[in-house]
Amino acid sequence: MAKKLMKGSEAIGEAAVQAGCHLFFGYPITPQNEIPEYLSSRLPQVGGTFVQAESEVASINMLYGAAGAGERVMTSSSSPGISLMAEGISYCAGAKLPVVIVNIMRAGPGLGGILPAQADYFQATKGLAHGDFRVLVLAPWSIQEAADLVQDAFDLADYYRNPVMVVGDGLIGQMMEPVEFYEDRKPIKELPPKTWASTGWKRDRPKAIINSLFLDPAELEQHNFDLKKKYDLMERDEVRFATYGSVDSADVVIIAYGTVARVCLSAIEALEEDGIKVAMVRPITLWPYPYEAVREVAAKAKDILVVELSTGQMIEDVRLALQRPRPIHFHCRLGGMLVSPEEVIAKVKAIKAGESEAMHYA
Amino acid sequence: MPEAVFVRPDSLTDVQTHYCPGCTHGIIHRLVAEVIDELGIRDRTVGIAPVGCSVLAYNYFDCDFHEAAHGRAPAVATGIKRARPDLAVFAYQGDGDLASIGMAEIVHCANRGEKVTVVFVNNAIYGMTGGQMAPTTMPGQSATTCQMGRDVELAGYPIRVAELISTLRTPAFVARASSHSPLAAVNAKEMLRRAFKYQVEGRCFSMVEILSTCPTNWGLTPAESTKWLEKTMLPYYPLGVFKTPDGDDRAPLPRKP
Ligand SMILES: Cc1ncc(C[n+]2csc(CCOP(=O)(O)OP(=O)(O)O)c2C)c(N)n1
Ligand code: SF4
Ligand SMILES: [Mg+2]
User: Fold this and answer.
1) Quick one: CATH architecture of A242-352?
2) Which residue among A76, B3, B64, B163 sits deepest, i.e. has the most Cβ atoms within 10 Å of its Cβ?
3) ipTM above 0.85, yes or no
4) What is the pLDDT of residues A114-126, one digit of tens each?
5) Which chain B residues are Cβ-neighbours of A75 within 8 angstroms?
């Protein structure tokens, strides 16, 4: 297919359709309304189903039903709506259901604001809901990457039988960029048939029970260990990141993800012209986190700068990556305010001049 | 060879349930299973267990099953049915599950006219968690969170779910039945049969509210429980068909008992 100029929200919707997702359940919330709006008219064209649910609580439980019945299914929402889905996501993880959840993050807490933020990093990577579980978290920085990652998300969800979350900030939803969908796209994993799904029991397989309840603690412990094995595999095989700039000898290495990383890249290019060597590590999977990549590039850099649209949620993972106490410089904008290239340039120059106060972690 | 006149329905598994003596959850399971057998739909039926005493229903029904989050069975049913419209999908829910935490899901599932069947077991109490007040607990009925009896000044009156759902404009089959006597059970089975039939024919959403006993949390013997249901619940929760897709609806509020 030729490149087409698309809005991020539409590209995300179309990517789901291209990935064979025929069901979408969701509840309106800014700034992601264009995803359900697009799919409400697009899905019927491919024989699919769009349901505007009564709430995000209902949406995620509709996903639980549809995914349990063996179909590819997606919902999208923004921060407060994701909070409401928490219980249901935990049930999906416990029942080993492949579902794809898109979070176009907005500023919080509470009702917060409707403008872009990265304030749900902790929620997505550490504490999506109760219980001992993980979800793969993919963070695109462009519309093309959003389209690609959404398609990959369905394969990964099916392969691991686990929820996969795609997080973007409001810019990812609203920007327009050329996007290409590949007609002969193959799944990125070898996917076995879903013999576990509740498709009506014809006695040709074990009875399907889509369930997260284990009253016997020994059984539940085993279930927890089994899930953990799966998460270990994800940590081993699914880490994604990209590096930019002078990764072998940087004055400053920037760690940033999503559209913030794009802003940083413009800054890096300008800084290189001024003879300042800057590298960047961009996590594409927020979980599993690219600890090794961050450690390696940081080891060769004089200073470390984290740039985020939150008060420093990702710094905790950067600290884990470094494995030893090192000063970390930090720049953020909050509440829907955006980081500009000029701010990043100024920050890097301040670091070089010894005028930036770093955070020291013992 | 003697003829078997009473056998376990194929749609029930050959295991002992965990229900208390005299609890009518088991009877209602059986009625649902008989209907599934008689309609010949077991191999395309998917059930949904609630969170409540019937949470383990997936062990008792011999068909594919989902276990839903508390109150969300109608949303799960929606997801299954929309994914596979050829399936017969039923949600089995208690009164705390459906009429309290899951009130939004049941109303909107019915209002969208999802072609699913909801078996709503109203025992006027939270059975599983130890006898707390439910939205359906009777005025004056004591529960562990209203030990002096339900005070309608503070807690309002019990919700009549069948009546409430039947006010929706969307075509549906809505009925209330009971399980306290053999005759009531025969009637309940007929209501369930109609409910499943409407679904299988692709006609409409269907829900049968079935009054049920909870001897354990009512603090009564099984025999006293059926009498209490008859004396206290029946006048407030009248039996009958409240709505059919053919439009022969009954007045939403019951006449004086
Ligand atoms: C989100 C959530 N809140 C509360 C509970 C605890 N809980 C389990 S069952 C139940 C009430 C069940 O009562 P009912 O639906 O009437 O079913 P019964 O046991 O009477 O058949 C509650 C409150 C839960 N499991 N999940
Ligand atoms: S607690 Fe009540 S509803 Fe639950 S099994 Fe016992 S009698 Fe039945
Ligand atoms: Mg109850």
Assistant:
1) 3-Layer(aba) Sandwich (3.40)
2) A76
3) yes
4) 999 999 999 999 9
5) none
